[in-house]
Amino acid sequence: MTLKEFIDEYIERNSMVRILYKDNPGSYRILLNDWDEVSMEWEIVKGQGRYAAYANHKVIGIACISVTGPYSSAINIVIEEIPLHILREKKLQTIL
Fold this sequence. Notes:
By secondary structure, this protein is an alpha+beta fold. It has helices spanning 3-10, 41-45, 84-95, and strands at 16-24, 27-30, 39-40, 59-62, 75-79.
């Protein structure tokens, strides 16, 4: 299931989300600069905001919900990590 489909199906409206990559068992890596980078769920569904480029990545699962900081209530969604060269090839195929 893609991130966009997952959010549309399972995440309540007006929820804050943070997108992560799985690093090691029980360990996650943020996609953007820091843990304070979050988006509203509707931004991703509409193709807007910080995580719009990841809308078609496969969802792996949900990470811990509770973290410290200003956006501690954000839902942490873990997605597949696609290497940059594969993303480039996919984009070129859609253009050509």
